[in-house]
Amino acid sequence: MDDDVRASRLRVSRRRALAAGGAIGLGTLLAACRPADEPSLASATPSTAPPPPTPLASDGVPISPSTDSTAELIAKLDGVGACRLTSEETQGPYWFDVDAIRSDIREDRPGSELRLALRVYDRDCRPLPNSVVEIWHCDAGGLYSGYEVASRGGPSSGRTETSDGEYSAGVRENVPDDDGTYLRGAQVADANGIVQFRTIWPGWYTGRTVHVHLKVHLGRRNVLTSQLYFDDALNDAVHGLPPYDAHPGRDTRNDDDGILDASGMLTVEVVGDGHLAYTNLGVEV
Questions:
Q1: H-type helices in the chain, by residue range?
Q2: Which DSSP state fits 146?
Q3: Cα end-to-end distance, the chain, whole Å
Q4: Rounded to an integer, what distance in angstroms lies between the CA atom of residue 75 and that of residue 248?
Q5: Which of 19, 26, 46, 272 could form a disulfide with 191 if both were Cys (CB 3.0 to 4.6 A apart)?
Q6: 243 cis-preceded (ω within 30 degrees of 0)
Q7: pLDDT by residue (tens digit) across 122-169?
Q8: What are the backbone dihedrals phi and psi of residue 282, each rounded to the nearest 5 degrees, phi first?
Q9: How many whole angstroms separate alpha carbon 204 and alpha carbon 238?
């Protein structure tokens, strides 16, 4: 098992022990297990907007951005459209505070590679460096880590608790039913308010179009919960290939989804054998 996967699952297990009366220094574990990310191109000029406080691990060590955004990526995000706020949307039943700062969230999940770039800005369109963006989504077969039985239509414990991790506090979370952590993780925004993830194109499950969940945190405070979406023609193309074609019969498209909001639509480009998807996230701060 990959060291990053092992560390993430250990964090989940130990957080449960903490809730039951145990103790652990999560900051120390986080610092020891944070993976090195792939190098990026030359950094763009940082924003002059005053940044939020740098997120700190529980041992007081700053949680720093893993990557710097490039001038090319900033230009792509500038071209998405006018500054606007991103609509709040439900977090759904499958969120828990995975407490993992990492850009590559794939673990062992097969699927078409997806590079996801998100820029966070405030109501005045100023980038928010040091904000934390967290994402989670289902795998190619429609399963969520932590809730594999429930996302197959089986029973779930239904237990909830309050998040208290390195970057999230005070949000009600559903206690996971298993120790899986795949396709979940968070990144700290760089000087331009940008985070970048490496994941797979999401699958689908009954009643929902294809989507990615997200939260934005400032100083451990949740300031946005929303979802991201893809053009349905792209969904059809990707889902016609392995391993997605082993889960056919997608029953809900964008026009039929009762949750989808246009502010969450992603711009997508083909990059090699995968895709780059990007958008801006406007938060009410």
A1: 3-19, 26-33, 71-78, 148-151, 232-239
A2: T
A3: 41
A4: 37
A5: 46
A6: yes
A7: 999 999 999 999 999 999 999 999 999 999 999 998 999 999 999 999
A8: -95, 125
A9: 12
